[in-house]
Each structure stands twice: as structure tokens, then as C-alpha cells.
Write a structure and sequence with these properties.
By secondary structure, the protein is an alpha+beta fold. The chain is built from nine helices and 23 strands. It is globular and about 75 Å long.
Length: 374
């Protein structure tokens, strides 16, 4: 059986996977990473710590240091599982890169990023951009340098299957024409020619776009948001090690959000959406303006609120780092890792407390005057 076992070697991370008795899984993996230099060679030497094999019961994935293993229903599922593992290892091999969960496409020489948001369609939009003729840097993970430059992983985007009937015939035809490995859950879509950025190819980030998919939307709309919205999304969607201080992440991402716009794309049909977004990127005057926050908060019971005496005197805590972004302030408490986002009211309070401690009564009166409230 040794002639049926191969080792997979990838740029930056070396020999990393052994696949036994599953040539279709090897083919699926290679097709799914067309931009990532890969070498398939006869298995030899020490067993890599990721191991895929097929037996009479199907395909299985295991790890050298873990007795557990799990079954994979198809070669496409093998590719999906391995891609996630291998991207993580590629980022570990280059600690200067921050891995961000996002879709990324090139428009006019800069990258537009779509941070991960539950079922908002970042992968679908990435494929739609490919169908519209734009270059894809990735649909799931992008490396980000300290200077705010995106670095491609060389992995093809994938669609959740089945493709909805509401998508345009042009989109569906493209996804079928460029279909790679697939099963009933996912399909990799392989952009043609130079449509997928090669492994390690880089491009500066030009915009952050948050997504809102709504079947009731007839025409796509792009809304300009406060930069703090994009900053919070990037803080939440990164591969940084759990012991990386929030302050360090904040200082890394803040300069990016100080120079690039943060937008919201509302849409229903992906191909129409990407064409309109590209038009807006070219012509910022088409953007609507919104000061609303996108963050959804669960209702808080009045019974759970902590009451305080307005006569209590408030003062700023020691050791808090303060960052300004647009009209907002962000406070980072290094010892706890807590991040607080202050809107206009909170910003006024913080600025007042920087001068002297104040009671709740005094703060209320000053804020009321500041905002011309009764």
C-alpha cells in the first residue's frame, strides 16, 4: 500500500500532510489551492502530523498527537478541512502576519475586505466579484501586514451548496463553468486565468465593507459607516493567538481604520451587488451616510441593571489607553483586555473626567447643556 501513500509539501510550511489510498482527495486538495505552490511526492520518512486515509468505511482525518479522528464524507470535504488547518499553519510560520477572517477582492489596485459575519455572504460575494471580472485574494482568510497590506493565501473561494434559485443566471453559470471540488455542502470555484491572486501576492487595503443580506432589498445600497464599526469587526475576526493583548491588536488595526473608509453593503442578488459596490468605490459620492451602530445588543432586564447614586463621584481609572477614531473614543484596559467604545456622550464624559472627578449629578447637567437637552 506504500505506493498509494503520498506526502503533501506546501510553500512556507513544508511537508505537512500524508494521504493514503485516496488519490481523489489529493486531487481535490490540489485543485482547491491553485495559487499555493504544492508538491505531491511518495510518502517517505517521518509521518507528518496530519494524516488522511481511506479504509472500507470511508475517508478519515487524524493527527499524530491526537488519538481522535473523524470521518469526512467526500474528497471535497477533505479539501475543506485541510485548507482551514493549513492556512493556520501558514500564519504560524510567519508571525508578522495577522490572519483576518474576510473575503478580499482587488478593485483599482487596492483591496476591499468583507469581514466575517454570520451568513452575510462574504464567500458568495467573493465568487460574484470573480464572475464580474475582478481578482480574488480570498474568500475566508487574508494575511495582514503591520502596514495594512493584504497577503493572499492562494486558496480558491467556495460556495455553500445548493446555490439559491434567486441568484442570477449569469452568476450560476459562472459558478458551474468554474466548478472545482464539490459535494452536497460546498463547491470550490476556480477563477480563470489570473483571477485568483497567487500565494504571498500582496496589495494594500483600500476599504472595509460590512454586509447585510436581505431578500427584500430590490436595489443594492452602500452606506458609509463610522470607522469604529470596521475596527470592531476586524478585532473580532482575526487569528491572533489568545494570549495576544487586545491593546497590541488595537494598535495594529487602528492606523488602517484611520485611513480607509468603512462601508455597509445592503443587497439581495450578489452579482448586482458587487457591480454596484465597485461603482461606488470608484465614485464615493454615491455613498449614503449613516451614524447608526450595526452592533446588536440583547435586551437588558431592568431588574439586572446596577443602580448607582447620582451623588457618587466618578474618576478615570489608571493605566487605561485611549485611542481616537473619527468622532469616537476607544478605551483599552491592558490588565483585563477590556475594550470600551465611547460614542459622543461617552466621549464628553471621559474628557470631563480627565480634568477632575465629578458626581453623576454634575455629569448629567454638563451633558444636557452640551447636547442642548432639557
Amino acid at each position: 500500500m506504500s505506493n498509494l501513500a503520498v506526502d503533501i509539501e506546501l510553500a512556507k510550511i513544508g511537508v505537512c500532510v500524508r494521504i493514503e489510498n485516496a488519490p481523489d482527495a489529493v486531487q481535490a486538495l490540489v485543485q482547491a489551492i491553485p495559487g499555493w505552490p504544492v508538491t505531491v511526492q511518495p510518502a517517505a520518512g517521518t509521518l507528518p502530523d496530519i494524516y488522511i486515509y481511506r479504509d472500507a468505511e470511508g475517508l478519515w482525518q487524524s493527527w499524530l498527537d491526537d488519538p481522535n479522528e473523524f470521518d469526512l464524507p467526500s474528497p471535497a470535504a477533505v479539501a475543506c478541512s485541510l485548507v482551514g488547518e493549513l492556512i493556520g499553519r501558514r500564519l504560524e510560520a510567519e508571525p508578522t502576519l495577522l490572519g483576518v477572517h474576510c473575503g478580499s477582492v482587488e478593485i483599482n489596485g487596492t483591496l476591499v475586505l468583507f469581514p466575517e459575519s454570520s451568513k452575510a455572504g462574504k464567500s458568495t460575494l467573493t465568487v460574484a466579484f470573480a464572475a464580474a471580472g475582478y481578482r480574488v485574494f480570498g474568500d475566508d482568510v487574508l494575511g495582514l501586514t503591520a502596514e495594512g497590506v493584504g497577503v493572499a493565501m492562494g486558496v480558491a473561494p467556495r460556495l455553500r451548496m445548493p446555490v439559491p434559485d434567486s441568484f442570477s443566471a449569469e452568476f450560476v453559470a459562472y459558478a458551474e463553468r468554474h466548478a472545482g471540488p464539490e459535494d452536497e455542502c460546498y463547491r470550490f470555484v476556480i477563477p480563470a486565468n489570473n483571477g485568483l491572486a497567487r500565494f504571498d501576492e500582496s496589495c494594500p487595503v483600500g476599504a472595509i465593507v460590512l454586509l447585510e443580506r436581505d431578500a427584500q432589498v430590490i436595489d443594492p445600497e452602500v452606506v458609509k459607516l463610522a470607522p469604529g464599526e470596521g475596527l470592531l469587526q476586524l478585532l473580532c475576526q482575526n487569528f491572533a493567538a489568545s494570549d495576544t493583548p487586545n491593546e497590541e491588536l488595537f494598535e495594529r488595526l487602528l492606523p488602517l481604520m484611520q485611513r480607509v473608509p468603512c462601508l455597509l453593503l445592503r443587497y439581495s442578488e450578489p452579482l448586482a451587488a458587487v457591480r454596484y459596490l465597485a461603482k461606488v468605490i470608484d465614485n464615493p459620492d454615491l455613498q449614503s451616510i449613516s451614524g447608526a451602530s450595526l452592533l446588536s445588543h440583547a435586551p437588558v432586564s431592568v431588574a439586572n441593571l446596577t443602580l448607582f447614586d447620582h451623588a457618587d463621584v466618578w474618576a478615570i481609572a489608571n493605566g487605561v489607553s485611549v485611542y481616537s477614531l473619527g468622532d469616537e473614543l476607544f478605551l483599552v484596559h491592558p490588565s483585563s483586555g477590556a475594550i470600551h467604545r465611547l460614542n459622543a456622550s461617552g466621549k464628553v464624559v471621559w474628557q470631563l473626567l480627565q480634568h477632575e472627578p465629578l458626581s453623576g449629578h454634575a455629569l448629567s447637567e454638563v451633558i444636557a447643556v452640551y447636547f442642548n437637552a432639557p
